[in-house]
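[Automated response] Your request has been received and processed.

Submitted sequence:
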Amino acid sequence: MIGTLGDFGSRSGYGAAPDAAEVQILGPVRVIDGDRDVGVDRPLERAALVRLALARGTPVSDGQLAVDLWGDGELNRPAARLRVLISRLRAALGAHGHAVMRSPAGYWTTVAVGDLLAAESAAERMHAARRAGDHAAVRSAADAALRCWRGPALADLMSPPFADAEAARLGEWRLSLVVAGMEATLQLGSGAEMATELATLVSEHPLHEPLARLFALMLYRTGSQADALDRLGRLRRTLSEELGVDPTPETAELELRILRHDSSLQPPRLRYAAAVEGAKRTAINGHSAANDTFVGRRRELADVLDGLEQRGVVTVVGGPGSGKSRLALEAAQRVADSGVPVVFVELTPMHRKDSLYRAIAVAVAGDAGPETCREWVTGAMSGALLLLDNAEHMLDELTVTLAGLMAQIPGLTVLVTSRRKLEFPGAVALRVGPLDEAAGLELFAERALRPVPAGQRPELAAVCAALDWLPLGIELAAGLTSISSIPQLAQRINERIRLLMDGRREAGDDRHVGLRAVLDCSYALLDPLEQAVLRRISVFAGGFALESAEWVVPSGRLEKDDVAPALARLVDRGLVAVSMDAGNRRFSLRETVRDYASTMLVEAGERASTRQQHVAWCLELVRTADDAGSGRATAAAFAEWPNVLEALEYSAGAPWEHLGLQLAVAMHAPWKERGRYRDASRHFEALINAAAATAEERANALSKYAFHLLMVDRLDESADVFAKADELAATMDDDGLVLEICYYRGIVDIKRGQLGAAVATLEAGEMHARRIGDRKRMPMFANASGAAELFAGLADAGMANIERAIRLHEESGNDHELARALNNRAAALLALGRSADALAAADESDNCVRRSGSYAKRVDERRVLSHNELIRAAVELAANRLDNAERHCRTAQSFLNGGISMADIDLAWVLIRKGELAEARSLLDKVYAHVMPGGIQWLAVRPVSAALALATGEAETAALLVGQTTGYYARSGFGWQRHVDRLRDVQQQLASRRSVRE
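Generated structure:
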């Protein structure tokens, strides 16, 4: 047996970064590098690589490896045979041959078992969800784990002795995942759809009691009590005849409960379907409830609510104008009225590259979530209903995101509307079509602007029938009653339908003709100014204010004063919706109307000019808000984020691309304040080569782009982009830009572990700032230099620079930067052994963050608070108060919303000291998966890996790690006292063990 399920998820004890190549074993064995197959064709070489990879970085002795590959028989010179085999394996791996290494303890490799690690990660989520009682998440995680299999494990590798046992173990584990997923499905109230699969599995595993119990429960819930009891009876007989044993107590108890028709065998139901109609409506996401009457769809509404009761994912599927969004919103409103939290996210403005997690964070908090917002969303959405409207363009992305959401968020229910069915395991799909006649006529009468004469009911029915009884078409037709009688309306629509049908029959497409007809009629009845306003407001995404339309729409004969009256008439006609958002009136177009208006915009030849005007408005919005202060700029930018995003997206490659680049630069501060570094990097990358940008604009944009690359740890790319920016800035008379670039180049060098280069760059920058009298940047350079020297083990020199930075920040009253400098002072004092002073400095740093007026809202402020908690943890750890140290480390983690940080490394060290090795290993796995080899965090985590190896009895591995890390520290100049002390502690423990043995 190579390992146990308890080992799953562990990474190399050596702490070495995994190789780019990976081996996949959940099916026929494959060795790949990304999408490329690495040609390890000989079975014995593949077997050797698999055996070493399954050891997860632990060396395998020559004797054990030989036995595992060739068996227990007499081996002639096994070490020599292994050398030849490993030599051939390295040759087959080509550029990845270095990943197979030799140590005194045996051979080992950094090649990971990629598909197994992915399955284990999903299984860990499944177990966590099971403990939380979240059956939907259990099912989702089990499905995710099972998708990692491509067939029987090690299917083409059965000759080596180890492979047969390993394949059997993995087969048993896979079956346990299948059982867990099916059990969760039954708990959620589903199960009939898996009857065939369950029957097959029970036939293949007649002695597997959990499978038999699940099958019996599924049969009982589908109304077959006799079949359920018969299944358990057959199990009882088989166990007796083949094993001579009785069923387990769990099986006997289930049999008795089925006999008694125990009501608890039925799946649990949620509580909100019975919300009282007509009760006071609850606002969703701060938006007031719909102010129109919900007409018709009683049966469909009941079906949606019934689906939501079961928890899981419900999709309302319907074509354009079918009323699917209104139906879903009414169902969500009933849920909200019953006291369940509801979050509404409109997906129409979103693009495939956008983060759904962040969109949800925005919907919950009314502001942009942080870069690492997944964990934040998880905490905020527990037990809620999430409504995702108009998802048809993001179904693939949504499937992936929902798998994560359902696995991570206890009690989450999701309601999706889409023109296409969402293919998601266990999702309930409800289709909506035309209204029935009574509901259609009632809807027209409700929305008509004048009473409908009783004698015109036949003509009204003809109008609705011509519109395929689709709610949107009926509502738009009702909006025309202010200028047309019912007979006139019927005539207009029928004439337009005939024209459309002639054209569409030629094209072979007669779908949605009635809806297009009423849109054509509505558009034709507008005056030219109203038509122009409708066309041009289609560039807005996610709605707009009147002032915004007055900025974008005017052109030619259409003036600013024409916009408001035209909008009012469009609202009256039902073409434009109006709502109140936080007390402000906001306009929007329904999805189908926006699509139509966009088409008209293209036909009018106005799309390019209107889009350019829209980008210019976004740019003016952000710049004007920036003049009022950083907080105002951030709030304004993200209040209009769908519009800003739309403007950035369609600027790439457009004639006005330079305006898009200017918008990205203007968004730098809001992105920075909210930690939206990945968004920023993506948009800068798309726009950075704008042809019409001036050299000054390009240099500034390159600097901002490089900053965001730095913040997502794309450090080498960041260094390259900063170098380009520096080259351009050197030709300009812009000291501020030169200093900005110099400062962040120093920070890049610190994060890459190039501490000598960082100190040199930062000292040169401080001299430049002093020469030109820039007292704002002087302390920033001094503080960063001090941090670099602290990391290099020069605490006294670092303290001198940090103290100088503190004095300058105190003179300027910059509490934000002062908090960072005080945190570095605390770290330096700690390195110098002055624990009480370090605690005082950390407290003072916290107070500065509080005085800054935005406590813990800015990402960099949360980092400062996190680092201060780590100072407190270090002091408690030194006093051997391990529980207190753990508490401070976990508080430090909480400030960063799940992002990788020194808090994970320090917490892992504390947990090792407490003997909680499994969680420590999990933390180290997470760190190694995200940090750059050779960087500061990678250097800091190495001694912790050595300590873990020693704690798990792998003394040779620990010794190797200590030796490697000592070399890394010497070559990089890394000497941060806290981590050097940890390395020395492991060295001393190793020496002590050796002396005891001697």
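Summary generated for your ticket: Residues 1-15, 269-279, 367-372, 503-511 have pLDDT under 50 and may be disordered. The first helix runs from residue 43 to 54.
If you did not submit this request, please reply to this message.
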